[in-house]
Amino acid sequence: MNRHRLLTVLLLVAFIASGCAPAVAPTAAPPTAAVAAATQVPAPSPEATDEPVTLVFWSHWATEPSKQDVLKAAAAKLQEKHPNVTVDFTWWNKVEMFPAMRNAFTAGEGFPDIFYWDRLGLEFIPAGWLVDLSTAIDWSEVQQWAKDSWTRPGPGGAPGVWAVPIETQTDEIYYNKDIFDKLGVTVPANYTFTIEQFYDICVKARQAGYDCFSNGVADYPNMGSYLFNFLLVRQLGAADIVRLFAGEKSWKDPDVVAAMGWAKKIIDVPAYALGLSTMNIAEMHTYFHTQQKAAMFLVGSWYTGRAFVPPDKGGQPADFRLGMLRYPTMPNGKGDGLRLSGVAGAISVAEKSPHKALALELAQIIASTEIGNLWVETTAGSTGMITTTSGGPYQAYFADYAKVHEGETNTPFVSAMISPPAYNDAYLSVVCQALNLQQISLEEALDKMEEARLAIVK
Fold first, then answer.
1. Is-cis flag, bond preceding 310, omega within 30?
2. Which of 72, 156, 201, 307 has its CB 3.0 to 4.6 Å from that of 316, i.e. a possible disulfide?
3. Nearest 10 degrees: Cα torsion 162, 167, 173, 175
4. Whether 294 and 259 share a structural domain
5. Which helix (H) or strand (E) holds 53?
6. What is the DSSP-derived secondary structure letter of residue 60?
7. Are 10 and 45 contacting, i.e. CB atoms less than 8 angstroms apart?
8. Residues 74 and 199 in one domain
């Protein structure tokens, strides 16, 4: 195992052992003195003059105005300190943004000063395109586990912290309560079905004319990963799922085959819409909560950022009855009580930005309890910041969320967080796309994944 992958796997194994978890409900406030110190942004930079400065900020969330509002609020706080500064936002869908940034950084021009970043840009770290934020900002109002998630080897192998974890997530099964009522499905008191019961629900949904899941893979292949991830973590447990996606456990292992076999059985119901290959992420949301053509939606808890906005902006109808489930249990499974979680959207600064000091000042503003609270209350999503809010207008949702998931333990979303890129690419293309689309058999998929695994362990 190369040094980079070994360090990352060891970090995540330690994370699991620690029992740390992202906060969806509020977290404890830090000591008053620490809050006072951390909310003070760095001293004015040399750019704090009367000369106009434009700070270029590229971000994902082109279709998520609530998240845009949070970043705009952070920018406004910077502009209060520096009236000469204009923050110029460009809003993207990240599948278009990352290639554009990659090209700009490679060319050495046209790149943003500060930008959205996530695991799609992991190669930006060894390339030296990101500022190491380890000591460049004060981390006292950021949850330690979230900071650790973006602590990775940089140029030369030395570890650094490369992003502010503004967005965190857990992987969820949301369901339409009205459709479940029509199907005659009663959700257990512990919100957990056995895999056999879960399969039966999918069959009932299909027989009643509904798709089981509102997922598509047109713009994000990982939207086809949830069913596999849920069942693998429930079957394997925390340690072995890390080993599987690190390339240390065979795809021919009996537990892996058992979990993947149940996933294939559900796919063959068929579980997905005929438009699986062409449905983009915005269409998935509408298909689920507005058109109500699918009984369930397998998605990260960032669902709320798109769904909890007015219907005329793509949000769910006011009378939509949203429910949540735990992952189904597996026969002889080792992962009962586990839930997949991790960091999602983050904010990074360009190492070669001509306005690096100002960009770091804005990153510091974002890395605060104030902005964390605003994120929770504006997007109904979770954050890597230490928060002190009960959820604002979304308090009822967070209360339901806490009730459904009471007693569960978070384990990191490993399939895209620690896998070498070629191995992860195989998972996305072979499993999330080809297997979901019924283009290959389960045996062929397992053979291809085993081939990809062996290629990285030689």
1. no
2. 307
3. -160
4. yes
5. strand 53-59
6. S
7. no
8. no
For residue 247, being part of any structural domain is answered with yes
Q: What are phi and psi of 270, to 5 degrees?
A: -85, 150
- Tell me: do 147 and 267 sit in the same domain: no
Distance CA 379, CA 306 (A): 8
Q: Are 150 and 121 in contact (CB under 8 A)?
A: no
Alpha helices in 39-164 (DSSP H): 65-81, 94-107, 144-149
Q: Do both 211 and 137 map to the same domain?
A: no
Do 208 and 321 share a domain, yes or no? yes
Evaluate whether residue 397 is within a structural domain: no
The helix/strand/coil state of 429 is helix
Q: Residues 163, 345: contact at Cβ < 8 Å?
A: no
Same domain membership, residue 453 and residue 329 = yes
Three-class SS state of 252: coil
Taking the model in full, what pTM does it have?
0.86
Q: Is residue 286 part of a domain?
A: yes
Q: Do 96 and 65 belong together in one domain?
A: yes
Do both 280 and 237 map to the same domain? yes
Domain extent, residue 176, equals 170-341+414-457
If one counts every other C-beta atom within 10 angstroms of the C-beta of residue 225, the result is: 25
Residue with tokens 């008053």: 32
HSE value, Cβ hemisphere, 13 Å, CA-based, for 354: 8
Which CATH number fits the domain that encloses residue 148? 3.40.190.10
**How would you write the pLDDT of the chain (458 residues) with one tens digit per residue?**
444 443 343 333 333 333 333 344 434 333 333 333 333 444 445 455 579 999 999 999 999 999 999 999 999 999 999 999 999 999 999 999 999 999 999 999 999 999 999 988 989 999 999 999 999 999 999 999 999 999 999 999 999 999 999 999 999 999 999 999 999 999 999 999 999 999 999 999 999 999 999 999 998 899 999 999 999 999 999 999 999 999 999 999 999 999 999 999 999 999 999 989 999 999 999 999 999 999 999 999 999 999 999 999 899 999 999 999 999 999 999 999 999 998 999 999 999 999 999 999 999 999 999 999 999 999 999 999 999 999 999 999 999 999 999 999 998 766 555 678 789 899 999 999 999 999 999 999 999 999 999 999 87
Is 322 in a helix, a strand, or coil? strand
- CA-to-CA dists, residue 224 to 75, 297, 437, angstroms: 35, 11, 10
Output the six-digit token pair for 84.
């000469």
Residue with tokens 């925390």: 238
